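Here is one chain, start to finish.
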Amino acid sequence: MQACGVATIFIGAAGTLSKMLVIQGGALETQGTMLLIFSLVLGSLIGTWLDLEQKMDRMGQKIKATVKAQNDNLFVEGFVNISLIICVGAMAIVGSIQDGISGDYSMLAAKAVLDMVIVMIFAFYLWGGSCFFCCSHFLLSGADYFGFCCMRNLYQ
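Its structure:
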């Protein structure tokens, strides 16, 4: 699990720093720092405004009731945790943008391998809820991908 975390940090840092650090006139300079900070703050505000955490909890409760897993105390926790880890990471969003606009799925392929290991570990500890994260994953990642495919078709 720690190796997956390190790999994710490395891929994310490399992608971010490749656009933020530039060499101009023989000196290393940064660009886009304020955009990065603004994006993080704006994302937090939108998530709070839309009350995404409570909606994920309610979705987990509905799935728990549907599959009659009332005795599983960790069902909702497993569902919410794995959904957030898999669906809202930078690799999921940037990978969907990259694949949708340019057709390059390399980041999504690397993410799929990391996600497979992470989901297997979560499924071992939080069996019930972690098995149903695919509901939220399909909705969020599918919407990202198809939205950016439509954007690519509009701009070509």
